[in-house]
Amino acid sequence: MRENKLLAVRNLGRPHGPKAHDGTIKTERVDEMWGTDMTTTMTAREGNASIFLAVDHCSLECVGIHAARYGTRFEALEPIRQGVRHSFGAFGPAVAEGLTLRHDNGSQYVSKVFQEEISCLGIQSSPSFVREPQGNGIAERFVRTLKENLLWIRRFDTVEELRLALLEFKDTYNREWNIGRHDYKTPSAVRAIQKEAVNIAV
User: Fold this and answer.
1) Which residue ranges traverse the bilayer (predicted)?
2) Contact partners, residue 4, CB within 8 Å, separation at least 6
């Protein structure tokens, strides 16, 4: 096909160049930046299911995770709501001020509903470059961990069964997963150490 020039035309877009990836998306403090992403899996009785998640860019803690039958903008907000309640202790206007949310350019994340709710919470939107998944690499890496340790090795009959398993995985991961760049401390331990240091300083 290639020799006869019969391949479909592909628009690869223009490259962003090296400046697109200068610096790092890792942060030094928890709750400075979260990454959010979506993946899918199949259930035996209800078919396709959408999975949404949010991950802290410092501790790599999964602050929220959710499964739903349909991958709508409303379902995409659920892990953010979970994370705000968990990390900031409340849910309301400007409660998460100072937090930045990294996301891709999926229709759920660029929707008016999604952007207005995170703005109301005080969260700044930080979309990654189009066709540059590295910009959302923290959340993308967590998706791989989730697939390798749960989604690819276990079967789920219903979306509700999947949702409960995801919450259980989140708790186990946060409590027991050792993070190399934090001297093999768990995500929950990194958060606890940082929060204790803040309380002592105050």
Assistant:
1) none
2) none
Predicted local confidence at residue 21, as pLDDT: 56
- Alpha carbon 185 to its chain centroid, in Å, reads 20
Give the containing element (helix H, strand E) for 146.
helix 137-146
Separation CA 133–CA 187 (nearest Å):
23
193, 197, 198, 202 alpha-carbon torsion, rounded to 10°? 150
pLDDT at 2: 73
Query: 158 CB contacts (<8 Å, ≥6 apart)?
Result: 43, 45, 46
CA–CA distance, 26 with 55 (Å, rounded to integer): 11
Percent of the chain beyond pLDDT 90? 75
Nearest to 38 by CA among 49, 28, 19, 53: 53
Query: What is the DSSP code (8-state) at residue 167?
Result: H
Give the Cα separation of 130 and 105 in Å (integer): 7
pLDDT in tens, 107-156: 999 999 999 999 999 999 998 877 666 778 899 999 999 999 999 999 99
Confidence label for 190 from pLDDT (cuts 50, 70 and 90): very high
* 74: exposed, middle or buried (Cβ count in 10 Å: 0-12, 13-18, 19+): middle
Which domains, ranges and CATH numbers included, belong to the chain? 33-201 (3.30.420.10)
Whose tokens are 């229709």? That residue is 107
| CA–CA dist 38, 95 (Å, integer) | 24
